[in-house]
Amino acid sequence: MLMNFFNSVNQVYQIDILEYIQSTFDNPGSMILTVIDLAIVVTLIFYACKMLKNTRAWQLLKGIFILVLVTIISNMLRLKILNYILSIIMMYGGIMIIVIFQPEIRRGLEQLRSK
C-alpha cells in the first residue's frame, strides 16, 4: 500500500512542470479553478491546525509526521527491515487511531455541528 503511494508520488513528479505551466496559461479558466481549489485546501488546513493546536490530537499528528518522515528516509536508504516494520505500522495505524481516539473524534464532530 505504501509502495503504491510512493509510485503515485513519483508519477506526479515525472510530469514536466514547464508543460503544466504552459497548459495552465493556455486555459485561464483552469488557472482560476486551481487557485480557488488551493485557497480552499489551505484554509481548511489552517483551521484544522488552529482547532487541533494544544490538544492530544496535535501531538498525535506530530508523531505521525515523524513516522512518515522516517518511513520515507528508510525507503530512500534501502533499510528493508525498518521500512517493512514502519510500512506495516502505517498500514494498520489508521484503524488504531480511530479505535484509540474515538471519543475525541466524536467530540470534535459534535463541536463542528454546533458551530
Radius of gyration: 19 Å
β-sheet strand percentage: under 5%
Would you tell me the structural class of the helices and strands? Answer: mainly alpha
Fraction of residues in helices?
over 70%
Describe, in plain words, how this protein is organized in 3D.
The chain is an all-alpha fold. The protein folds into two domains: about 40 residues; about 60 residues. It is built from six helices and no strands. Helix 4 packs antiparallel against helix 5. The protein is flat, with a radius of gyration of 19 Å.
Task: Give the arrangement of secondary structure elements.
Elements: H1 2-13, H2 17-26, H3 28-52, H4 56-76, H5 80-100, H6 102-114
Please describe the structure with a list of short key phrases separated by commas or semicolons:
89% helix, mainly alpha, 2 domains, 115 residues, 6 helices
Summary, kept brief:
This protein is mainly alpha-helical. It has helices at residues 2-13, 17-26, 28-52, 56-76, 80-100, 102-114.
